[in-house]
Each structure stands twice: as structure tokens, then as C-alpha cells.
UniProtKB/TrEMBL annotation:
Source organism (scientific name): Aegithalos caudatus (Long-tailed tit)
Any one Gene Ontology cellular component term annotated for this protein: nucleus
Name of the protein in question: SWT1 protein
Domain of life according to the entry: Eukaryota
């Protein structure tokens, strides 16, 4: 009777209901600071402009934060773990696509640089060649580095969320009344998450060594 918008709801309706009833209802279920996540989703999902990959990445990460927060209350008959898994897959797919694009751009830049180097050598203008290389390489390497940082961050976040879910489950076993049921992650997911973490740490270590 007091609902801001009556069902059936569209996603836009739900986001409006979240904002309208946030302080009185949802702020008591999940951290109130997540209102910024609701506003971010609402702002970008219904803006009259196309998305770039960075915006999509932000929306997926914000969605994961919201789903994870509600999963600490309940798994909602298995719906939340499934939704979280699908969003995680989308994050991984986006990361792979962005990494492939960066690698492609980097390869093209290296080819251009090789051609430029040959021309500059013939003209015997070594100082100018070094300047050209620095100008050409810097943007590409910056993009590649930023993409790598985002990939590492995503892996660390995935491991954290998985271990957090296991912690909630563990405390539930020890004292059922203390913690509500959380979304369950499989042992396979935990193992794969740790494998990704090891690979990421190895890459960081090798990078520092270089």
C-alpha cells in the first residue's frame, strides 16, 4: 500500500524504488553507503548515450558490490548466487576483450615504430628517433598498464568475495543465530580464484624484477 511504484517492475522502476525507500527500508538491510551504487546504476543505465568499455566495467563492478551486500542477508532461493556468477562472467569476458584490444593496439604501434625506426636510421637522426619512440610508446603502455591493474584488481576482489562468503558460512556453522545464510561459492571457484591470485602475484613479482 505504501510502495512508491507498484509491481510488475522494470529495472528502472526497481532502481527508483531503491532510492525512494532507501533510508526507511534498504538502508537497514545493507550498508547505507551503497546508495551511491544505486545512483551510479540509475544514472548510467538510462543515459541517452552509448557505453564505452570503462563505463561497462564500472557498472559491472557496482552491480557485484550490490549483489554481494544483499547476499550477506540471504541467497534469495539461489537467485543471488546465480546473478553474481553471471555478472562475474561478464566481468571476465570484458577483461579478456579489453586485454585483446590493448594487445592488438600495442602490436600495431610496435610495427609503426619499427617502420619509423628504419626510416630514421636511414636519415641518421637518432635523437629524433628516440623522441618519436617515447611519444608513440607512452600512451599504449599506459593503456596496457591500466588494463593490467584493473585485471589484477578484479582477481583480488573475486578472491576476497569468495573467501568472505566462506567466512560467513563458517560462522553460521559455529553459531547459526549470529549470521544469516550467505550465497555459497563452490570449492572449485575458491581454488580457481586462488590460482588466478597466484598468477597475478607472479606477474607482479616479475614486473618488479624487470
Amino acid at each position: 500500500q505504501i510502495l512508491y511504484l507498484k509491481p510488475p517492475w522494470t529495472l528502472a522502476n526497481l532502481l527508483k524504488c531503491y532510492k525512494k525507500h532507501w533510508m526507511a527500508v534498504f538502508g537497514y538491510v545493507v550498508p547505507r553507503s551503497l546508495l551511491s551504487t544505486i545512483e551510479c546504476l540509475s544514472k548510467h543505465l538510462y543515459a541517452d548515450k552509448p557505453f564505452d568499455s570503462s563505463t561497462v566495467s564500472i557498472l559491472l563492478q557496482e552491480s557485484k558490490k550490490l549483489l554481494h551486500a544483499f547476499s550477506c542477508r540471504s541467497d534469495y532461493n539461489g537467485v543471488l548466487p546465480q546473478a553474481y556468477s553471471e555478472v562475474t562472467k561478464l566481468c571476465e569476458t570484458l577483461g579478456e576483450v579489453r586485454a585483446a584490444l590493448v594487445e592488438q593496439d600495442l602490436s600495431e604501434d610496435i610495427m609503426v615504430l619499427s617502420e619509423n625506426a628504419a626510416c630514421e636510421k636511414m636519415e641518421a637522426t637518432v635523437p629524433n628517433l628516440q623522441s618519436t619512440e617515447e611519444k608513440e610508446l607512452h600512451p599504449s603502455f599506459h593503456v596496457a598498464q591500466e588494463s593490467r591493474h584493473q585485471e589484477i584488481w578484479s582477481v583480488l576482489e573475486g578472491v576476497w568475495n569468495t573467501m568472505n562468503l566462506y567466512s560467513v558460512e563458517l560462522f553460521q556453522k559455529l553459531e547459526p543465530s549470529a549470521v544469516s545464510v550467505a550465497a555459497k561459492a563452490s570449492f572449485e571457484e575458491a581454488f580457481l580464484g586462488l590460482q588466478k591470485l597466484l598468477a597475478a602475484v607472479k606477474d607482479i613479482h616479475e614486473g618488479i624484477g624487470r
